[in-house]
């Protein structure tokens, strides 16, 4: 029996709840009577309920996010029925704003908004001592990070072997991009550097080799970013992999000098371009020098072995399909290894909502609260982009079509327009965006390339090279009987292959708010 149970529904098993581990590490004397149990949004709610009921906790703390609010709401309704005496406490980004307006918060006894590292412990201490707070909504405040216990010892051996290990050297963001919750944060605060690096060494000693930094502005404070890069550079070895989120227009020589020293496969940068439209950027208070950002991407691609993951957002106020397409084409020309196309989401409390009337923003009524249409992009246009994004992920970001994708895009002046035509064609053929077998993806591209004028022989050879690159030795049925190069001639290590694509995607797919 646990007096306190910390739990959440992660987006997938490979993810870990970083926030709950902070709460666990900062419980003080209550840590010994607390258990952390994680589930996923794909688990059956009755099964999750049974696991919680079996432990008979006195206090249940649940993390609520944009990707799990609907199943968590169902879970809370059932917990209220079968554990009527348990205290239900919510926290997380989804319930930190517009708190009183949500069905999920109405089912809870308490909601802790913002950073709950200390506030959750203080609430538990009061509840367990019989001092019941009157206020349902408790502001977590802004704790001094030197007083916050680091959570890295809470990663279990199973976590280290099978899950993403998240770390952070700082919190907050100084920028005011209106689509992002970080726009509401106070200026960046940093954890004590020496203590943080000691924790990283302990993780290395325990066998951690993949680190995902969740800092919104890793390269803002040069002293911090240089120290962290130097720390890992001195310990670099095969298998070490570091993921950082970078401000795109800030890459001074002091950082470049360190970055170029990392070997292939060890660094991934997530670079949020979001939009190249200057007017849209100004409208949403996004301060970004696009020329410098593009120059930095070009330099990273030409002079380093960093794997580059760049983001664009469709549906921003003022953005048309044509301007978004121009931004995609500009980004494609800079050759990042992945371009993640996402649709704008309505994150609770963000200033983006002030544009609803003037720019006709219409949002879905269900999580993850995606944009449905704007005054500048119709529902049908955004639906086309949604399909584009899914098929681009399968063809452009998967790493399975390294030669055949450029073959597809070479025949059009606009890569966006060319791939949009292809994605529309695939949709019309398959009438679905998910659960399409890889072999079918190859076959569809083979057919489409021929429709676009590529000879069957050229398309077959290029697709076959892509097909066997991952180690396959068979010949797809639709390519049998054609004059294909022998596998022996195709065996080589791709010069541009940094880390296995599956590993990169594994680290980069955390839904964020």
Task: Walk me through the structure.
The chain is an alpha/beta fold and 513 residues long. The protein has three domains: 4-143, Rossmann fold (3-Layer(aba) Sandwich), CATH 3.40.50.280; 164-377, tm_1862 like domain (pyruvate-formate lyase- activating enzyme), CATH 3.80.30.20; 393-513, no CATH class. The protein contains 19 helices and 16 strands. The protein has helices at 18-25, 45-55, 69-82, 103-106, 119-128, 157-162, 193-205, 222-233, 253-259, 278-283, 290-303, 321-333, 379-395, 404-409, 415-430, 438-451, 456-469, 487-490, 501-508; strands spanning 4-10, 34-40, 59-63, 87-91, 110-113, 137-139, 165-167, 170-171, 189-190, 210-213, 241-246, 267-274, 307-314, 338-343, 362-363, 371-373. The chain has a six-stranded parallel sheet, with helices on both faces. A six-stranded parallel sheet has the order 7-10-11-12-13-14, sandwiched between helices. Strand 1 (4-10), helix 1 (18-25) and strand 2 (34-40) form a beta-alpha-beta unit. Helix 13 crosses helix 15 and helix 16 (438-451) packs antiparallel against helix 17 (456-469). The longest helix is centred in the last third of the chain and has 17 residues, at 379-395. The model is unreliable at 492-513 (pLDDT under 50).
Task: Give the SSE map.
Layout (H helix, E strand, L loop, with lengths): L3 E7 L7 H8 L8 E7 L4 H11 L3 E5 L5 H14 L4 E5 L11 H4 L3 E4 L5 H10 L8 E3 L17 H6 L2 E3 L2 E2 L17 E2 L2 H13 L4 E4 L8 H12 L7 E6 L6 H7 L7 E8 L3 H6 L6 H14 L3 E8 L6 H13 L4 E6 L18 E2 L7 E3 L5 H17 L8 H6 L5 H16 L7 H14 L4 H14 L17 H4 L10 H8 L5
Parallel strand pairs: 1-2, 1-3, 3-4, 4-5, 5-6, 7-10, 10-11, 11-12, 12-13, 13-14
Antiparallel strand pairs: 8-9, 15-16
């Amino acid at each position: 029996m646990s007096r306190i149970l910390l739990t959440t529904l992660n987006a997938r098993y490979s993810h870990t709840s970083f926030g709950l581990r902070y709460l666990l590490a900062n419980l003080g004397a209550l840590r010994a009577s607390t258990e952390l149990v994680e589930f996923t949004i794909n688990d059956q709610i009755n099964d999750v309920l049974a696991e919680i009921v079996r432990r008979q906790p006195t206090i249940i703390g649940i993390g609520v996010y944009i990707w799990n609010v609907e199943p968590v709401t169902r879970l809370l309704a059932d917990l209220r029925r079968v554990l009527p005496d348990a205290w239900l406490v919510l926290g997380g980004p989804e319930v930190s704003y517009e708190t009183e307006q949500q069905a999920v918060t109405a089912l809870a006894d308490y909601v802790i908004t913002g950073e709950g590292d200390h506030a959750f412990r203080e609430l538990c201490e009061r509840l367990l001592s019989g001092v019941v707070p009157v206020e349902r909504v408790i502001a977590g405040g802004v704790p001094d990070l030197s007083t916050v216990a680091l959570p890295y010892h809470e990663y279990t051996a199973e976590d280290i072997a099978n899950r993403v290990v998240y770390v952070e050297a700082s919190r907050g963001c100084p920028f005011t991009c209106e689509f992002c919750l970080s726009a509401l944060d106070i200026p960046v605060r940093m954890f004590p550097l020496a203590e943080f690096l000691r924790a990283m060494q302990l993780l290395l000693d325990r066998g951690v080799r993949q680190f995902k930094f969740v800092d919104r502005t890793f390269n803002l404070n040069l002293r911090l970013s240089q120290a962290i890069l130097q720390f890992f550079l001195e310990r670099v070895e095969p298998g070490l992999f570091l993921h950082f989120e970078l401000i795109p227009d800030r890459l001074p020589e002091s950082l470049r000098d360190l970055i170029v020293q990392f070997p292939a496969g060890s660094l991934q940068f997530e670079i949020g371009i979001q939009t190249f439209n200057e007017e849209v950027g100004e409208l949403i208070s996004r301060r970004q020098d696009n020329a410098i950002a593009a120059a930095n991407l070009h330099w990273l691609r030409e002079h380093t072995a960093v794997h580059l993951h760049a983001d664009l957002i469709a549906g921003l106020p003022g953005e048309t399909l044509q301007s978004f397409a121009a931004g995609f084409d500009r980004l494609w020309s800079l050759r990042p290894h992945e371009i993640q196309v996402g649709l704008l989401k309505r994150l609770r409390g963000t200033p983006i909502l002030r544009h609803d009337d003037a720019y006709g923003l219409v949002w879905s009524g269900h999580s993850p609260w995606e944009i449905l249409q704007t005054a500048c992009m119709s529902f049908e246009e955004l639906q086309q982009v949604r399909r584009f994004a899914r098929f681009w992920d399968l063809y452009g970001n998967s790493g399975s079509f390294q030669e055949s994708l450029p073959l597809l895009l070479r025949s059009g002046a606009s890569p966006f327009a060319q791939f949009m035509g292809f994605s529309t064609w695939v949709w019309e053929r398959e009438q679905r965006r998910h659960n399409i077998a890889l072999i079918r993806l190859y076959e569809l591209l083979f057919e489409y390339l021929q429709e676009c004028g590529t000879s069957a022989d050229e398309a077959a050879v290029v697709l076959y090279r892509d097909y066997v690159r991952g180690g396959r030795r068979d010949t797809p049925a639709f390519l049998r009987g054609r004059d294909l190069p022998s596998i022996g001639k195709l065996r080589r290590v791709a010069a541009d292959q940094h880390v296995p694509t599956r590993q990169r995607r594994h680290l980069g797919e955390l839904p964020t708010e």
